[in-house]
Amino acid sequence: MGAKSKLGIGSMSSPGVNSGRRRLQGFYAQRSAVSTLLIINTIAFIIQMFSNKFTEIFMLTSADVFTRPYILVTHMFLHANFTHILFNMYALWMFGMILEQKIGTKQFYILYFSAGIIAGFVASFFYPAALGASAAIMAVIGALVVIMPNLKLLFFFIIPMPFWVAGIFWAALDVFGIFVPSGIGNIAHLVGMAIGILFSFYLIQKRKKFTSSASYSTKVNLTADEAQDFYEKYNKYGRV
User: Fold this and answer.
1) How far is CA 164 from CA 29, 103, 148, 149, 168, in A?
2) Which of 49, 131, 213, 238 supports an S-S bond with 78, CB 3.0-4.6 Å?
3) What is the CATH number of the domain that holds 147?
C-alpha cells in the first residue's frame, strides 16, 4: 500500500502507533464481503430447491413492498434457477473481489445493499414480482466502470475490451430489454448500474478530500493519535 510507505507506518515503534498499525492490518484480514455474500446466496438457493414456500415468502412482491418491507432485502438472495444463480455468483466473484479490494469491505456492503434495495423498490412499480442479485451486481459493474475503466475483460468470454466499453454494452442490452420484455428486470439492472456509478464518484471525491486535507500527509512518523486518525479516515475514505 503506497500510503503506508509514504506515511512511514512501517517504521513506527511506539505502543500506540503499533496498535494503530495492527488495526489497519486487521482491516484487511476481516472476512471478505464477497465470500460472505456467495455463501448466503448459495445457502438460500439450496433452501429454495426444497421449499417453494421459502421463495414465495421472501421474494419481492410489488403489492407487499409497504406491508413487508424486508422483502426489499431478502429478494436479493433468491434466484429463479441454477443458471440464474450461476451467472450472478460468477459475476459477483469475478467483479466483486476486484471492487472490494479497491473500496474496502464496508463501502462494498453499503453499495451492494443500497443498490439492491433501491433498485428493488423502483422495480416494484414496473414488475409484479422480482428476485435475484442482478441489480446489486450491476452496481458493482457500474462502480468499476468509473474506478477502473481500462480494466480488460473478455466480453461474453470472447471479445476483449476495456471495462468502460463493456459497461456501455451491458447498459445497452438492458435498455433494449425494456422494449423487448423477456422476464428480466432490466429497469432494476439500470438503476443498480446508475447507483454504482454515482457511488464511485462519491468515493473518489471523498478520497480527494481525505488526501488533500490530511495534515500528516507529508510526515515520516506519526504519533499514536495521528495513526488512529489515519486508520479511521483511510478506512472511511481512502480505498479507491
Assistant:
1) 30, 18, 8, 5, 6
2) 131
3) 1.20.1540.10
